[in-house]
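Hey,
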Amino acid sequence: MKKTKLLAFTVALAAISPFAHADLSEDAHALKQDVKTAGKDTGHAIAHGAKEAGHDIASGAKVVGHGVASGAKVVGHGVASGARAVGHGIADTSRKGYEATRRAVKGDDKPAQ
């Protein structure tokens, strides 16, 4: 009797096993697809965030670069304007000095124009 019960149990288990296997296989496949989808979505979200951060950094760097360039341009123009004024002052002084020297040497009393 023990052998018959064991044999019946083994046959029943063998008959049910493919159905159980198929059900587990479907569940495993569904789980695998869910994990793949979640991983893909996470990767896309990270890539999108990194892309946005990169664009923001590039935009900020451009603004800073343009600000530095504008500042350098203003400073350069200031230096050039100052140098021009100094140069004109020296030229004017030299011209007046030359004219004064010429008048003194020639005995000319007319002032320089």
